[in-house]
Amino acid sequence: MQQTLNIGLIGTGYMGKAHAIALHAAPRVFTLPALPVCDLLAETDAALAASRASELGFARATGDWRELVADPAIDVVDICAPNFLHESMALAAIAAGKHVYSEKPLALTTASAERMTVAAERAGVKTLVGFNYIRNPATQLAREIIASGEIGELVHFRGRHNEDYLADPELPHNWRTRRDTAGSGALGDVGSHILNMAEYLTGQSITTVCGDLQTLIRQRPLPDGSGMGEVENDDQAQAMLHFSQGLMGNIETSRIASGRKMGLAYCVTGTHGALVFDQERMNELQLYRHEGPKGRRGFSTLLIGPEHTDYAAFSPAPGHGLGYNDQKIIEVRDLIEGILGQRELYPDFRQACRINRLIDAIERSHRERCWIGID
Amino acid sequence: MQQTLNIGLIGTGYMGKAHAIALHAAPRVFTLPALPVCDLLAETDAALAASRASELGFARATGDWRELVADPAIDVVDICAPNFLHESMALAAIAAGKHVYSEKPLALTTASAERMTVAAERAGVKTLVGFNYIRNPATQLAREIIASGEIGELVHFRGRHNEDYLADPELPHNWRTRRDTAGSGALGDVGSHILNMAEYLTGQSITTVCGDLQTLIRQRPLPDGSGMGEVENDDQAQAMLHFSQGLMGNIETSRIASGRKMGLAYCVTGTHGALVFDQERMNELQLYRHEGPKGRRGFSTLLIGPEHTDYAAFSPAPGHGLGYNDQKIIEVRDLIEGILGQRELYPDFRQACRINRLIDAIERSHRERCWIGID
Amino acid sequence: MQQTLNIGLIGTGYMGKAHAIALHAAPRVFTLPALPVCDLLAETDAALAASRASELGFARATGDWRELVADPAIDVVDICAPNFLHESMALAAIAAGKHVYSEKPLALTTASAERMTVAAERAGVKTLVGFNYIRNPATQLAREIIASGEIGELVHFRGRHNEDYLADPELPHNWRTRRDTAGSGALGDVGSHILNMAEYLTGQSITTVCGDLQTLIRQRPLPDGSGMGEVENDDQAQAMLHFSQGLMGNIETSRIASGRKMGLAYCVTGTHGALVFDQERMNELQLYRHEGPKGRRGFSTLLIGPEHTDYAAFSPAPGHGLGYNDQKIIEVRDLIEGILGQRELYPDFRQACRINRLIDAIERSHRERCWIGID
Amino acid sequence: MQQTLNIGLIGTGYMGKAHAIALHAAPRVFTLPALPVCDLLAETDAALAASRASELGFARATGDWRELVADPAIDVVDICAPNFLHESMALAAIAAGKHVYSEKPLALTTASAERMTVAAERAGVKTLVGFNYIRNPATQLAREIIASGEIGELVHFRGRHNEDYLADPELPHNWRTRRDTAGSGALGDVGSHILNMAEYLTGQSITTVCGDLQTLIRQRPLPDGSGMGEVENDDQAQAMLHFSQGLMGNIETSRIASGRKMGLAYCVTGTHGALVFDQERMNELQLYRHEGPKGRRGFSTLLIGPEHTDYAAFSPAPGHGLGYNDQKIIEVRDLIEGILGQRELYPDFRQACRINRLIDAIERSHRERCWIGID
Ligand SMILES: NC(=O)C1=CN([C@@H]2O[C@H](COP(=O)(O)OP(=O)(O)OC[C@H]3O[C@@H](n4cnc5c(N)ncnc54)[C@H](O)[C@@H]3O)[C@@H](O)[C@H]2O)C=CC1
Ligand SMILES: NC(=O)C1=CN([C@@H]2O[C@H](COP(=O)(O)OP(=O)(O)OC[C@H]3O[C@@H](n4cnc5c(N)ncnc54)[C@H](O)[C@@H]3O)[C@@H](O)[C@H]2O)C=CC1
Ligand SMILES: NC(=O)C1=CN([C@@H]2O[C@H](COP(=O)(O)OP(=O)(O)OC[C@H]3O[C@@H](n4cnc5c(N)ncnc54)[C@H](O)[C@@H]3O)[C@@H](O)[C@H]2O)C=CC1
Ligand SMILES: NC(=O)C1=CN([C@@H]2O[C@H](COP(=O)(O)OP(=O)(O)OC[C@H]3O[C@@H](n4cnc5c(N)ncnc54)[C@H](O)[C@@H]3O)[C@@H](O)[C@H]2O)C=CC1
């Protein structure tokens, strides 16, 4: 009989639902070494938890996440709650000996992320953080092309993750606009993805940053209608970066970039070619190579297909397209295989903690108007 | 307690797996009026059936599809076997009082499709045929825009469904290249999608066709290595079409269109605008409207988001992207709601039978070198 | 001293100005074997002719084109008048021993085009017809790629030339909407370009056609405000085509295709690749080839540059872009070199007469609802 | 009789030819207040000058540019020589009371550019610098849209001008790779365009910069074959920018960006919309606006046409496309009208001097690893 892993899911908003879909679909898409079982779900109160458990296909429900992390039946705690809860939930789960699958960014601060990392490593539990865009087969292909040297030595990295989910100034405060619940703003919320992407793709660490942040919409309506409140973190940010092997680059991130819905994009240039990618066209990678007759060189649009990593499990037919949630299905496969020791978990808490460190450094660089080294 | 519908799946190739994924994921994505239960699976032999049932999450397995259709526990028979088996399987299922969810094209010939339609209607069972591309929210949006008159009266329809899955002449015969197993070639296999799309989008029936077919790769290796065998159906086809309200248009279809992987595409032109769509970029619809100052008119790239039909259930965030399998998830939702009487099933056997009629007419038009009316 | 060719230009509307710009610029772009001299210009009356001559840089002007064709100083008669005047102007020019550079379509009917062709050939004068889109380096590249066999044997041709210049039903009659001044409608006006393109690109002759025409806007305001008048030719047309070496294909053409401004586009598919082109992005050719590892195949966007035919004379820098008028500059170069015997003139009256024959056949096919062979 | 302006052109490389084409074509495209006369041409020696004068349609030639600037017949000195010659040529021309049309960047250093600016202003001659990309109607449209407030208050500017003309390390030194002939590298050569564009588009001045430069290919073959020589300026650069009204942004520039041929591109985001432009598709502007129903918002591809500034003179038909050289034709029109006092000349030496100041500040910021204010 197939091994099982009982999952305890905390939080059923945007991400909680995405995780639930992926947990149910993953075993049908991939042949997994263990079956994830949607066992227990926690929400802010018992009634909500019960109704969400029924919707999302979980066997049991609780209004208290501490009950969930303590439940002996649970093997993996899956944290889909707002950022400020990640640390306490993860520490409790680790203390209870559970593996932890957490959403990004790992924590509000580097210090918090470090506490989580140290605790997990000491406890010997496995961890994975939900930077799902690196699971997209198109991006996996980009990394493989870079790693194989097909575009030569890397020369430049340009990345952005811009969206416009808070472009409307009438949108009220939510947990994302407050420092004590979110940490940094666009930089942590979506910028964390492109920072993680930068290191994932290039295989190099970011060693120095020079950052620049802005809060354009300085006040937003309070959700309770009691007036306006200060926005406490950045609406947009940009940074120049240097990497461990001399590569230079830059990133941009925004939550007020009118018109951008899923604006994670990158251009990686090498001495013998270049890659261009835009997550709004997530099934395409543009590849340019110095090769063949000059009059036949151009950016090729590679449509992802079964010859690329992780696509064939979804469809034998090339170019038929994966969606956002399919990235989470791959992430769940990685989680399961990682817990079973068949694959390295990446990014685990240690790597995700680096992202927190980069965010903090960019913020500090902004305040001090200078370049900041990352240790 | 939630109502359930027991599903019996026949065939676990490309489509069988896609259906299985969708059956498992649909209840997590949508709130369904009944829970589809992956109960029984049939394959060509018992061992294969058993292993696939375990992979695809079905409770029981059988090496004989007749057993499946006869099984009293089964509510819906889901036919994912090659075309030539659709009729016998559907007739048996209908005879046993089951609802039928069948892959496309419905049958090898119009006569066969008519027998299936008549049987289903007499038996009063519900039917749905898997022309999944019409479930894509981008295409649902196209239909809504057309129906609302936003682009005016329709003036022209151009459609194609071109792929290159048989462009390589070394690829051996399979069931798709033989008349007794597939019926027509590219025209039935992928062309059926664009014919169905034409009527779905325009809300008009095709009334006259003028067709043109070609088999370019006339012989292919026999799969048993015993030499070469004649290819018995078309590699590519094109047709001009007239519709019930005077609209004119054309379609193209191919299985040897080098470079096209998922080349279903359409351009619908109206008196006040136009729509352009390409399934290789399945999350985008291009909309042009005669409106506003002349210098600001252009094709807009609408990224599908939660404000469009059926997207929000997958993600609250716009532009994050659906994939091929997500279309099947929507199809399963439609199936369940349709069986429960909450929605009209489209295309049912009657409409799918029209597609067979169109295919036959295009073939006849090709042979007779003339326009053919559709009754 | 450099040889000169005195040009007599008739008509100074859209095309007349484009020719004038090209005649002045061509000797600066290319090293020509003879200098075209903008000598004499004819318009409908002397005053208009004089003012246009000053604007367009012509030395002399006349209100009577018969004077121009008879003028002994003139070497080349350049006809930019409406279609119905092409024959009389060309015949007079030929009778006077002039070379003729005429705008397309050559004539209102095949019979007229034949008279012109026979006259020119008997007189031994050189002729060139202004199907300028085939001069675009991107399209010249497409032809070279096809001719060299890089995409294998041709399998399918799809072409269209759709614009929306008459989509607005309030636009009054002009010479383009009347049979006695234009001949056919969209089919002759823009469709002629794509028919010429089809033969130019493939190197094959169209041998059989099956056509379909429509006039959607059946009445338009008379230009004198006296009410409405019948539109006498097609607003849109489509046709299926067979070519001399077995190739099949289709074309579409329209003057009411909302949103399309310069919608000449083609897709040529071969056994080993494909080409996709859209004149709205006239400096790009998309090339797909079955070559190299499967996971690296995709349509490449070739930006035209100095390594491609006829670009380097405009710029040493790749991808910097040519415009519409630059095509006319290349056409003028071809004209001059052709007259000087250094290049074959293509399409000359004989080839342009074929286009008239194709137009007539498509119209007849439409009336008779059958396929028509071209002799 | 029409007024004339005698032009003296110095240098007939890439730019010299482009200017010559434009000088000949401009009076045919536009109705100019004065006719530019291609009178005198200077090159490095008399023979070369004579042959180029014949090719480029100039009446007279000289092997000594000092003769040209001193020639009393000359009204305008047009400098298309390498950067290091701009100052001496311009100062001599100004001293002789000529108007000066100079290629960019204005000078090797800010100090040099200031001397030129002061001299020109004192002498009261008119000046124009060839930052031609701002003449592109698509970019003029972008500026108009921004100025009109259609996209709201500006929030972010992203620009790049990346090409790969020196990506190949085998390419030898030329005047562009040496400090004494070029000044800065990619930053001055192409980066100057995007810096000028940033201020042109936004209508704001850049007030603070933080720069970062790299020379990747540190040695190149000496052109005389005598070995390798040090590359003396940057291969690529990036900078973060702040503007006078609080806008933030960044730019990138490169001469080794594999695959980019004409990679000037920008994205300007405002509170109510955004603009995206790529000079490789120079006839398209992408416009997004927060307007109308949410489900109909998206980036519109505006194809430039006669309703946009400066297009109609080239063609009455929308979307037919301008090319690189057409930008120079518009620039020549601006020059003539500016000299005749009918239009402000922009960028004149004063504004072009700003660009030199920005380049210097970015270089200094790079050396000092800090933000630098621009006075
Ligand atoms: N990987 C990705 O692409 C994305 C990641 N995220 C991350 O996922 C996490 C959650 O974000 P969203 O789902 O967007 O937020 P959300 O606001 O939509 O959902 C948060 C959920 O957590 C629940 N929750 C709050 N406090 C709780 C408590 N004490 N106990 C149990 N449940 C509690 C809320 O009731 C709500 O259902 C965040 O860390 C966010 O950064 C979010 C969106 C995308
Ligand atoms: N909606 C769509 O976009 C698509 C629809 N299809 C349709 O789906 C159907 C199946 O096609 P594929 O999955 O591509 O074929 P396939 O060849 O990949 O799979 C067919 C499956 O049916 C099984 N089968 C054959 N005979 C059987 C029998 N007597 N009893 C039980 N199982 C049997 C085979 O063992 C195999 O697993 C066809 O009608 C095809 O036209 C296929 C691909 C895409
Ligand atoms: N190659 C191409 O892409 C294009 C070709 N054309 C062709 O060019 C020709 C002219 O078309 P347009 O310039 O668009 O027309 P237009 O209507 O803009 O200009 C026609 C010109 O001919 C003049 N004209 C009319 N009768 C005349 C006469 N008896 N004597 C002297 N001049 C006379 C008119 O006054 C007017 O200036 C047509 O054959 C058309 O099909 C037009 C547009 C594009
Ligand atoms: N606006 C734009 O987009 C572009 C501007 N440029 C600018 O144009 C200028 C020239 O660049 P290119 O044409 O690319 O250089 P190039 O090297 O192609 O041509 C320079 C020309 O100047 C001539 N020359 C050199 N010394 C001379 C002298 N003492 N007297 C007379 N002629 C002399 C050379 O013989 C050569 O013909 C530079 O300032 C460059 O930055 C260049 C390319 C594009």
UniProtKB/TrEMBL annotation, chains A, B, C, D:
It comes from the Bacteria. The keyword Transcription does not apply. InterPro entries: Gfo/Idh/MocA-like_OxRdtase_N, Gfo/Idh/MocA_oxidrdct_glycsds, GFO_IDH_MocA-like_dom, NAD(P)-bd_dom_sf. SUPFAM superfamilies: Glyceraldehyde-3-phosphate dehydrogenase-like, C-terminal domain, NAD(P)-binding Rossmann-fold domains. Residues 140-275 form the GFO/IDH/MocA-like oxidoreductase domain. Residues 5-131 form the Gfo/Idh/MocA-like oxidoreductase N-terminal domain. One of its GO terms (molecular function) is nucleotide binding. PANTHER family: BCDNA.GH03377 (PTHR43818). This is Gfo/Idh/MocA family oxidoreductase. It comes from Salinicola corii. The lineage of its organism: Bacteria, Pseudomonadati, Pseudomonadota, Gammaproteobacteria, Oceanospirillales.
